[in-house]
């Protein structure tokens, strides 16, 4: 799949987009590394342009699930840096988990202020095909690529896993693995 540099992205009013979960995290979830700051700035600039052009951003419940679970796992890893001998199930009984879940819910609701939730766009046969292809890439990435294809949406991602997917979608990124 040939990706385009997000710096070259010029949306118009009728551009339909899907922001991959990693992009939402760059936009709304605190990250404190030098690399992340540079990436965040570039994706934030693109997001500002998307909002200024009033582009349609689409999402679905698979992405909301992925986002919530990812935030909880990130917070679990941070929590267990000091408490190595705790399972995720035990973590769910802590105040840290309750706070992480509240943050994940807030993050999801903030995303839904900018994105339109879609559902029920795949039939059973299409879903079976995606499951059958999950040896090629992460199931969610296969699902999102097919979601974008069906929605005729451009995907913005920093995840290189989309490279392994044969679905013909338009993709913008800063990830050098795509751009070299």
Which features does this protein show?
11% strand, alpha/beta, Rossmann fold, single chain, globular, 6-stranded parallel β-sheet
Tell me what you see in this structure.
- With about 180 residues, this protein is α/β, with parallel strands linked by helices.
- It has one domain: 3-Layer(aba) Sandwich (Rossmann fold), CATH 3.40.50.
- The chain is built from eight helices and six strands; from the N terminus they run ββααβαααβααββα.
- Strands 1-6-5-2-3-4 form a six-stranded parallel β-sheet.
- Helix 3 packs antiparallel against helix 5 (about 95-115).
- The chain is globular and about 45 Å long.
- The mean pLDDT is about 90.
Provide the fold topology.
Layout: E1 4-5, E2 16-19, H1 21-28, H2 34-52, E3 56-60, H3 61-80, H4 88-91, H5 95-114, E4 116-118, H6 124-132, H7 139-151, E5 154-156, E6 171-173, H8 176-179
Parallel strand pairs: 1-6, 2-3, 2-5, 3-4, 5-6
Helix pairs in contact: 3-5
């Amino acid at each position: 799949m040939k990706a385009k540099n997000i710096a070259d992205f010029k949306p118009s009013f009728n551009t339909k987009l899907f922001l991959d979960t990693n992009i939402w995290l760059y936009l709304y979830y605190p990250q404190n590394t030098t690399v992340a700051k540079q990436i965040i700035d570039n994706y934030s600039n693109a997001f500002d342009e998307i909002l200024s052009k009033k582009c349609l951003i689409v999402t679905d419940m698979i992405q909301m699930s992925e986002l919530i679970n990812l935030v909880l796992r990130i917070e679990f890893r941070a929590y267990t840096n000091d408490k190595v001998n705790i399972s995720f199930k035990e973590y769910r009984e802590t105040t840290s988990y309750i706070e992480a879940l509240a943050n994940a819910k807030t993050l999801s609701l903030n995303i839904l202020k900018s994105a339109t939730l879609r559902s029920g766009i795949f039939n059973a046969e299409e879903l079976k095909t995606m499951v059958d292809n999950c040896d090629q890439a992460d199931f969610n990435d296969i699902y999102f690529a097919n979601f974008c294809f069906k929605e005729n949406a451009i995907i913005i991602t920093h995840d290189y896993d989309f490279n392994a997917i044969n679905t013909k979608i338009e993709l913008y990124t800063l990830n050098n693995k795509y751009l070299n």
